[in-house]
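sorry for the late reply, my laptop died twice this morning and i had to redo everyting from scratch. anyway the thing you sent over, i finally got around to it. pasting the sequence first so we're on the same page, its 392 residues, then the predicted structure underneath. double check i copied it right bc i was rushing
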Amino acid sequence: MAIKSSTCESRVTFHTDQVLSVAGAHLVHDVFSSFLSPLLPLIIDKLSLSMTLAGSLSFYQRLPSVVNPFIGMLADRVDLRLFISLAPGVTAVAMSLLGVAPSYAVAAVLLLVTGLSSAALHVPGPVMVAQVSGDQVGKGMSVWMTGGELARTLGPLIAVSAVSLLTLEGIWPIMLVGIAASFVIYSRIKDTPVRPPRGRAHIPLRQTWQDMQHLFIPLTGIIFSRSLMAAALNTFLPTFMTNQGQSFESGGIALVLYQLAGTVGALATGTLSDRIGRKWMLSVTLGIAPFLMLLFLLVEGWLVLPVLMLIGLISISTTPVMMAMVQEHANDQPATANGLYMGLSFVISATAPLLLGFLADALGLNTAFAASAVVALIGVPLVHWLPQDTSA
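ok and here's the structure:
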């Protein structure tokens, strides 16, 4: 996908309205896709699930990410703006019905649908953002990620409030908000010029990997190293808090504060990495986050929430930096490259909650959280093997 432009100015200009429109689709979609974590304690009770089965629900939500590279190949050849527009509505329907799911199998199917909808948004979305961000790709990725992180701040708050007002089984009418949003988003982005240029030769997926393996190999290690800690906080934080004697609402609030801090971090680090360099930014954030996680397990009382917010500020902020690196090294295959990155990221992220749930069943949730912090440290030396920055 590429912007049609006849002037140098359009290639370097940051198109704020277009970036915000695509980020808006990300916001609405991820508000609904983030319902699983805050609702998980209630779903565990309703369906009598073990921690391993509870973790596997997140796996089903992420399983369709295996098709991300193929969606990326398609997005480099055709216009997928309709997919971006439809995704918020489809996800809203599936996640709003989660409360009435009568069995584990039905819940898994709904989450699979959400995963497919998510893939249709998350692969072409960042590519469109990169193309309308001019020479400020890091800033564009920060705005894109801010939409997602703000959604994961609002999503738990909306889910907890909806359950409090309507009960778990009664939250389904809120799907109408997502359906309406899809119509609005389509009207905003339908004229964004992102149709791929005619005559571009098809580049095989294997060749894209070969062209970018110098980036993808160390990046895969970094994604894996931080995946367990991300699973601990994104999936099991409310469950962890309720196991500590806190209320269902307190668990939701903790997740909201963690994601709110992550929104600030995501907005800041991509923009900052445009100036100081991607590798330096990754080294700092990857090095600090694991120690904050261990501190979170040690503190008590009012200190828990500030430390949790610091973790969100630091740990979530690595994603826009890595996405900017992928786009800068993608050459003529931006969507295929992003599809590979998203495929790697989502598949690894899909297995992480399952593994963490298994560790929690075997060793306890506290020990599983601690183990996730130790594994996260592996990613720090891998930054050295990333290619040189093109941003600073």
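The chain has a mean pLDDT of 85.
thats about all i looked at so far, will dig more tmrw
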